[in-house]
Specification:
single chain, alpha/beta, Four Helix Bundle (Hemerythrin (Met), subunit A), Rossmann fold, seven-stranded mixed β-sheet, four-stranded antiparallel β-sheet, 16 strands, globular
Length: 474
């Protein structure tokens, strides 16, 4: 895994605008360009990629253009060059994809370095991706499922000349490493199951390593393409639900409390819970986001606040311990979070702190929504007790920014997730609609609409899914 830095270039100047008074501020014009791009991107995902057929090929063909738009280049994205990181007084502007799949590598935006620096990490194999996930280079369950699939595809490409038995051992070992790198993230397990099912359908001991690698590459691209489409649909359903049942005082800003990173950084291209908030704003409702800061990684302060600032959405940072009091005082209209995994009965795992917010939200009749693409559905978990909740290293709590903040020898417990029971949820937002209780029935029906894990006989790995948006949402 290599670390390559790129400067954060200025976005291209907007096109010529007829003189108006007062003059348009240049920085505001750039922010408007960014917002227009994301709205257009999500609309295109809903409109032109509404069918999964051809999604992977379209994603491959437009990846350079997407990178250009994120980086602010009108031509091809710049080649990697050594660069001096942005000074704290000049934080990076513009946005880029949280990851890109290129012919022989996966490029990850290093989330550890935000908001002060835009730094990319290049991964050449599945082992590199697993290391990056373990080291929290990237976070967010929906994103991790996509990059894990891309990592396994890279390993398949690097194993073309291996013997069939060796190739099988390499792929299974890499898949296990990727699963173990993010044990609580259901999308990673689901992606690995799907990739290995494709491998099995083609014949695990197939002699032709090149065709096997091509098939797994197509399967990974299909997983990414379907995530883009699915997240855009989820966002549309979430915005429609909130518009149909508008909380808060009519005519006033919608006050939304969120915890955890759930924007494009955590979703890959579109995002989940945070993207729903953006869609509500784009639909014309004023919004104000209260962002829980989330120790120990301070994802709220470093990532969520950064994404909201990029999108021009008003927000305020809130200490985790103060969030429940805001709910009790009536200063929040709704809570929306993402999910690491969803059990068959609707119990979820999500960022630590979410359980307390869900309890207080129910106590004060405030809707608690979960934005959970169906990649987070864990069909093997009957309820929350079966969902994986392995703790992270307690040492993460003992330092901040590389500086020790607790006395030597301090013990620490560091849960990786909270389990929130289904009865505390107002709705689960998915790509096939907003699901309501009883969640077991609703989730089973929704999961049955998803593409089959094994698609032998389909070279592109893209059949088996609905080809019409209405069919997918029926």
């Amino acid at each position: 895994m290599t670390d390559e830095r790129r400067p954060a270039p200025e976005l291209p100047a907007p096109g010529t605008i007829a003189p108006v008074a007062p003059a348009v501020d240049a920085e505001e014009a750039r922010r408007l360009d960014r917002r227009r791009f994301f709205r257009s991107f999500a609309a295109d995902a809903m409109k032109t990629a509404a069918t999964v057929v051809g999604a992977a090929g379209a994603l491959r063909e437009t990846s350079a253009g997407m990178a250009s738009a994120f980086l602010g280049s009108v031509d091809a994205p710049p080649a990697p060059v050594a660069a001096t990181a942005a000074a704290p007084s000049e934080p990076p502007s513009g946005f880029r994809s949280a990851f890109r799949l290129e012919p022989e590598q996966v490029v990850l935006l290093d989330q550890r370095r935000l908001p002060d620096e835009l730094v990319e990490i290049v991964c050449l194999s599945g082992a590199d991706v697993a290391q990056a996930v373990r080291e929290s280079v990237v976070r967010g369950a929906p994103l991790l499922g996509q990059v894990a699939a891309c990592g396994l595809a890279l390993t398949a490409g690097r194993s073309v000349s291996s013997s069939p038995h060796a190739r099988r051992a390499i792929l299974f070992g890499t898949a296990n490493a990727l699963r173990n790198a993010a044990p609580t993230a259901a999308p990673v397990r689901n992606a690995m199951d799907r990739m290995l099912a494709r491998f099995a359908a083609l014949g695990e001991l197939r002699e032709d390593g090149a065709s096997m690698a091509a098939a797994l590459r197509d399967e990974a691209e299909a997983i990414v393409g379907e995530a883009v489409i699915g997240h855009a649909r989820l966002v549309a359903h979430g915005a429609a639900l909130i518009a149909a049942n508008p909380p808060g005082v009519e005519g006033s800003a919608l006050r939304v409390l969120t915890i955890g990173s759930t924007g494009a950084l955590a979703g890959g291209q579109v995002g989940t819970a945070l993207a729903v908030v953006g869609a509500v704003r784009d639909d014309g409702r004023d919004v104000r986001v209260l962002v829980a800061e989330t120790r120990p990684w301070l994802a709220g302060a470093r990532l969520v606040a950064w994404e909201l600032a990029q999108a021009g959405i008003p927000f305020m940072l809130v200490g985790d311990g103060a969030a429940a009091g805001l709910l009790a005082r009536g200063e929040v209209d709704l809570v929306i979070v993402g999910a690491e995994a969803v059990a068959r009965n609707g119990d979820i795992t999500c960022d630590p702190g979410s359980y307390g917010l869900a309890v207080v939200a129910e106590r004060h009749a405030i809707p608690f929504y979960v934005a959970a693409p169906l990649s987070t559905y864990d069909a093997e978990a009957e309820d929350g007790r079966a969902l994986r909740a392995e703790p992270r290293a307690g040492t993460e709590l003992l330092s901040l920014g590389g500086r020790r903040i607790a006395p030597e020898g301090t013990p620490a417990v560091n849960p990786s997730v909270d389990v929130v029971p289904a009865e505390l949820l107002a709705a689960i937002l998915t790509e096939v609609g907003a699901l309501r209780a009883p969640y077991g029935t609703a989730l089973a029906a929704a999961a049955s609409t998803q593409p089959a894990a094994s698609r032998a006989g389909d070279p592109a790995g893209l059949d088996g899914g609905p080809t019409d948006p209405a069919e997918a949402e029926a």
